[in-house]
Write a structure and sequence with these properties.
This protein has about 260 residues and is of the alpha/beta class. The protein has helices at about 1-15, 40-50, 60-65, 90-95, 115-125, 140-145, 155-160, 175-180, 200-210, 225-240, 250-260; strands at about 35-40, 55, 105-110, 130-135, 150, 165-170, 185, 220-225, 245-250.
């Protein structure tokens, strides 16, 4: 991918300076003449763990629902804009932040070549927001560099099930899986995960065909008894270089109801 090659080259250039230790995980696009500062993947991880910054997905609601960085929020679009000039509604952002224009806020969209977060950042600056930054690597950067799965909302399940290539992973125990699951689902129980790469049930799933070894970009969606189990399995799969992995927080019964409805 062109954008990732650019990031790696940038990281290598910076790391050549003795005074700075830099990796691709610490790199940022650093596009010139921007109204807001950029953050790296490692910085975004730290921000999410700290929990004192609002993370806003600047993409359309359905795209957000299909897969977003866990913990990210989303607002309605600005009315009257054509699709190629999509931008979130600044008034909706204000309502989300309870009018606090000094609230720490990070925006992201679809990577360095996507203009959605850039347009929103400019409009927020014009509206008086003083603490806005951007994760310019966006959703593609997070999928590739974070070692963490994306999150899928139940609103998107009817859309995703139209994808015949999607792989559905049931993270429940084998006995629960055997008693009934969704059509075509494969079982990777959370209880059999082991730390590290190529370990436990994930290694077995790579070898026996439960995971799509011929195309690591295949859409993989994980559900389970609860969101914690689903996320644990999804994160383990993402760390095996399956870049299009997401989890569903909703309980199994709700997922099953949606995926089996007409």
């Amino acid at each position: 991918m062109k954008w990732l090659s650019t990031i790696i080259a940038f990281a290598a250039m910076v790391s050549a300076t003795p005074a700075i230790s830099q990796t691709v995980f610490d790199a940022a696009v650093a596009e010139p003449d921007q109204t807001t500062a950029d953050v790296s993947t490692n910085e975004l991880r730290q921000v999410i763990n700290a929990g004192n910054t609002a993370l806003l997905d600047a993409r359309p609601p359905m795209e957000y629902a299909v897969s977003h960085i866990p913990g990210a929020l989303n607002v309605a679009p600005q009315p009257g804009r054509p699709a190629h000039l999509y931008v979130s509604d600044v008034a909706e952002v204000g309502r989300l932040l309870n009018g606090r224009k000094d609230q720490s806020l990070i925006l992201y969209c679809n990577g360095p070549f996507c203009g959605k977060s850039k347009r929103l950042a400019a409009e927020l600056a014009e509206a008086g927001y003083t603490n806005v930054r951007r994760y310019q690597l966006g959703a593609p950067g997070w999928r590739t560099l974070a070692g963490s799965a994306m999150q899928t909302e139940v609103q998107a399940l009817s859309y995703i099930r139209k994808d015949p290539t999607a792989v559905w992973i049931d993270a429940r125990e084998p006995t629960a899986f055997a008693s009934g699951t969704v059509r075509g689902a494969r079982n990777i129980p959370a209880s059999r995960l082991k730390p590290g790469k190529d370990q436990g049930v994930v290694k077995e799933a790579k070898d026996d065909g439960r995971l799509p070894m011929e195309d690591h970009n295949t859409r993989i969606v994980v559900f389970g008894t609860n969101g914690d189990d689903a996320r644990a399995v999804a994160d383990a799969i993402a760390r095996e270089a399956f870049h299009n992995t997401s989890f569903i927080k909703a309980p199994f019964e709700e997922v099953q109801r949606i995926l089996t409805s007409p």
